[in-house]
Amino acid sequence: MMHTATITGGAATPTITSERFIEGFRWMLLSRTVEDKISALYTAGKIVGGVYLGRGQEAFSAALAMALRPGRDIFAPLIRDQAGRMAFGEPVIDTLRTYLGSVLGPMRGRDGNIHRGMPSNGVPAMISHLGSTISVVCGMLMARRFRGEQGIVGAATIGDGGTSTGACHEALNLAAVEKLPLILAVANNQFAYSTPVSRQFACENLADRACGYGMEGHTVDGTDLAACLAVFEKAVSRARSGSGPQLVVGKLLRLCGHGEHDDASYVPAEVRTRPENRDCLHAARQTMLENGWATPRELETMEAEAYETVQDAVSRAQRDPVPDASRETWAALASHWLIEGGKQ
Amino acid sequence: MMHTATITGGAATPTITSERFIEGFRWMLLSRTVEDKISALYTAGKIVGGVYLGRGQEAFSAALAMALRPGRDIFAPLIRDQAGRMAFGEPVIDTLRTYLGSVLGPMRGRDGNIHRGMPSNGVPAMISHLGSTISVVCGMLMARRFRGEQGIVGAATIGDGGTSTGACHEALNLAAVEKLPLILAVANNQFAYSTPVSRQFACENLADRACGYGMEGHTVDGTDLAACLAVFEKAVSRARSGSGPQLVVGKLLRLCGHGEHDDASYVPAEVRTRPENRDCLHAARQTMLENGWATPRELETMEAEAYETVQDAVSRAQRDPVPDASRETWAALASHWLIEGGKQ
Amino acid sequence: MSITYLEAIREAQAKALREDPAVFIYGQDIAKFGGAFKATKNLARDFPGRVLDSPISEDAMMGMAIGAAIDGMRPIVEMQFADFSSLAFNQIINQAATHFWRTGVPCPLVVRLPSGGTAGSGPFHSQSVEAIYSHYPGLVILTPATVGDAYSMLLEAITLNDPVLFCEHKFLYYHLKADRLPEDRLPIGKARIVRSGLHATVVTYSAMLHESLRAAVELQKDGYEIEVVDLRSVKPLDTDTVLASVARTGRLLAVGEAFPWGGVTAEVVARVASEGFHLLDAPPRRLNSKDTPIPYHPNLWSVHRPTAASIESAIRELLKQ
Amino acid sequence: MSITYLEAIREAQAKALREDPAVFIYGQDIAKFGGAFKATKNLARDFPGRVLDSPISEDAMMGMAIGAAIDGMRPIVEMQFADFSSLAFNQIINQAATHFWRTGVPCPLVVRLPSGGTAGSGPFHSQSVEAIYSHYPGLVILTPATVGDAYSMLLEAITLNDPVLFCEHKFLYYHLKADRLPEDRLPIGKARIVRSGLHATVVTYSAMLHESLRAAVELQKDGYEIEVVDLRSVKPLDTDTVLASVARTGRLLAVGEAFPWGGVTAEVVARVASEGFHLLDAPPRRLNSKDTPIPYHPNLWSVHRPTAASIESAIRELLKQ
Ligand SMILES: Cc1ncc(C[n+]2csc(CCOP(=O)(O)OP(=O)(O)O)c2C)c(N)n1
Ligand SMILES: Cc1ncc(C[n+]2csc(CCOP(=O)(O)OP(=O)(O)O)c2C)c(N)n1
Ligand SMILES: [Mg+2]
Ligand SMILES: [Mg+2]
To answer: Staple D113 to which of B20, B334, C161, D82, CB 3.0 to 4.6 Å?
Structure first.
């Protein structure tokens, strides 16, 4: 059994074509544009409930989803995966509908913001309890295995803080015992809400946990799109080819508050300014220009397009009907004949 | 931070004096004698409830407890720690009283067999839910730290199967973050009830989990008393001197059923007969003779003494009063004035 | 031929595995070993690859079953003891129970919970957990008291498109026998009047049904006709059958083995008081276990839980009022 | 000067830290950050080393607190939301709740549970968990509804030698204000008659107290005098005060924000029906949330939970009977 506790993204050889990089950049850009809009709507008091954004994590999130096959594989996003959600096929309108409380959104107003999902498209709808969704992905993979479906991969994401949950441990161990094609992408953004990693774990690198499960571990610079694309291509192909679960740890910094209610003043300035904590979107933009994959004008066009897409989705979602309690069925059971009729 | 994922017991230098070894042997012998008696009483239908024995794990359990200071340190035994319990100060009579349902036992008939404990002597009373006691030991160590007590060590034991619990993960991680002087002794006896380790975890060695927590790991031949004494002396002294939590994994075989109701027919004969799965008590006996630490006659005397001690405890416990429901207070709260009076 | 409550549970699982390829079973020691109680004996042999041993990871066991269920399978999870489901509690109430309502995608699974007290089992191998799960929306909670119900309700549970908690009582596993498996079957959600009477109604479920029936037989000797209702499923709870019985007898005693605060007996009494107030000729009564952990020693345990004797005297009190 | 419900909770913790060196606080983001709701603001600064950030490990947080408690400390654990206590459930009900009974060694700790619904919080940040914990022996469950109770009951809870679950309602955190902290204090275990009346008794607790009082004010306009009882602690539950009130009014409505099956309203109605049957002039009624997960969208949430309006109409129904 191979124990590669730290393959750096760079070393993970699949070389990235310009097409791939540009596609990744587009998802990152769209994600940032959507989230900037949601943030503005939140400030304007137009959002129902809380807002949690993925600023600074777009490269890591998009690269994971791009390594998967929408519709066939499984992708279980968490609260900072706007980029990955869209790269895996979530329409922008679903995002806006959920945040703006449209009854036409995937959760119909019953649940909101980052809890949206489409299980039938391979996207489980996360519950808040961190770590709980990893074993759900294991179960979806078991279902595919029972049905004899070949070459499926399932990915779940989690943060540095979420790795402290018992659920995360039990699910990884189960995946290793069953040798499931599971990817766990750990976005180590150095904080869990306000809590620095020094109060969260004492190991040098969370990827060091891989060998304790008998799974393969990978570490990557989460601000480097090319490195992220490479490491996830490698991890996903290893999982797909039967090498069992893969732990991929990305180092990056959350470039926003925990939620939009949080100014993140607890993040020291000297941490924000460290070069390794750069903005992955700016870095990708630089790479595009340096390699001549896009001219400044072309980038402006991309930005304009992204802006259009988002504006369009916002105005559509804002015209949507909101939930109407009188039309709500209040049915928690699929077996409707077993529902207790307001016996109170 | 030092990551010694596999120090073999042999290499863990503290050399073991004959006195130490003989003391360990005596605890092992007494434990085996007590458990043989309990097993016989169980077969005779004299025991209330189930019986779970530590046959084959006496060296590992006794050596851990001997490295601790009864009355000052903390020892959280599990179901196979008869030897360690006694080495840490549990009177034989408490064992028998619990099994024979005496109301004078530490649990007063309210709880039984391996659930007995004496929290005020640093011995928590385990609940059945595996893994749950490790964080309790962390809390006891935090209490000592808050009070400024220096040089305390707390040890918990668990089996190979118990390492799959979320509780075990959360507690180890917490201990590492707080750099607590915790010893987790994992008795890898190759089975969890009937389940072989191949269905329990996929790593090569459970000690490989240490570095994922940033704690030190040790591996030892659990059938070798000298090696066990050495590895625990080392791990305990490192914890005591501020090196943080220590994970000690002992390889051995459960030489009995999961409980006395279980014939363990699922353990293949070829496993039972492997040399490394030898009986630690026979091995220690051999060492005693080979090193001339005891003559055959002296060993017989020791055995006779152990037998006497146990017989005496049995006959005393059998004369004890059993619980009387009419004298039971049925008080689940220490704040007696808040107890609801049979409001049913 | 005679079949026990436990064998009925095994037969139901065998039938489900035979008839529906989407069914599989996951739990500790359930494969080659056949489970701590042998409820899956030979099933791993007869259905290769569909009865799997799990690690000691109740949270992940449950999460795995949920993932499989929302992806088209019909998992059965065996908890080694109901008491250990406390570690799957979050997955059950927050993930399984909310899934259909949140997403519209059903989560069809059955969690088998070896429940209830037996002599010498102590605080952590004796619990009755129906109350905590019934409190949460999105779950169906079954408490079979007979061999026939153990069989037919488990089979029906496996066909439901919702998460079902199947509380099977360990005390009934070996003691309770029937001549054959039932042809008839009363659907889930309907209570059964097991013994009809005139003077008082005892509403109960699971092992307490048999204690209550013994009490009724004793009281018969003094000419009291006690009607005994077996709820069978505690959520949904068949209030109509309970009310119909109370309408006949005018007196109600609700008996349960679980802890006294809240739970089935509170729900039954509260519903009858609200919906059948004018049917009652006397104050409704409850009988539960004592409000302490479940004692290990039989001398204490036998007093902690309701028994035929304590039920009988509760009924006598009720008849006096 | 004016103090909020949330500030009262902070003040109580500050006082406890000041007066008892055995007290410490453990939870996520509670140290420098002061907690998700700022209930521990400045406490880490004012009491260095005694207010500690925990990893995201509810089971271990609780186990650690239990270990400290049985070793002489008086821990306060802050769950970031009551909903996440589902992951500490096993440690709470099986380890903390059974410890004194099993060993004779007390386990004095307080678990602070930011509870209940607020607009837009959804299924996993809105739950009321008092019912599941009250079911288990060995726990004290408090549900303060006023600034004064938030302060004095938390202080008293910290002095108890038992595990206490302190259900503080998030909806009251900022809205609810008082001029000063109370000198008087009603002991834990006693309910309070907040508004006296003649025609009906509403028994409630936590945020629903305020909805019920609003309903009572409305009904006052039509000349109905509604007595409102605040349970304050749901376990133990002060049956005597409830019965005394029903004796005056003859009518009972039990109101709770939790799910409908079981729980506080069932326990209250069942106790009154059993112990105060002849005091009742009409069938007792219950009002709870709907039996679905708690909706995220305010349009649904405001109908899911009881409100002044739905309580008012329930009382009108009750008065008609
Ligand atoms: C089990 C659990 N406990 C507490 C919370 C509350 N909570 C929500 S997000 C969060 C921080 C998560 O940090 P991390 O896992 O690093 O993810 P990040 O927010 O940094 O992406 C916490 C504590 C939760 N969701 N689940
Ligand atoms: C959380 C939990 N799940 C299930 C059980 C039931 N159970 C009791 S002992 C046991 C096997 C334990 O195996 P291991 O941890 O290897 O310890 P060993 O018995 O081999 O010493 C199981 C599954 C339990 N006690 N706790
Ligand atoms: Mg983080
Ligand atoms: Mg083992």
So the answer is: D82
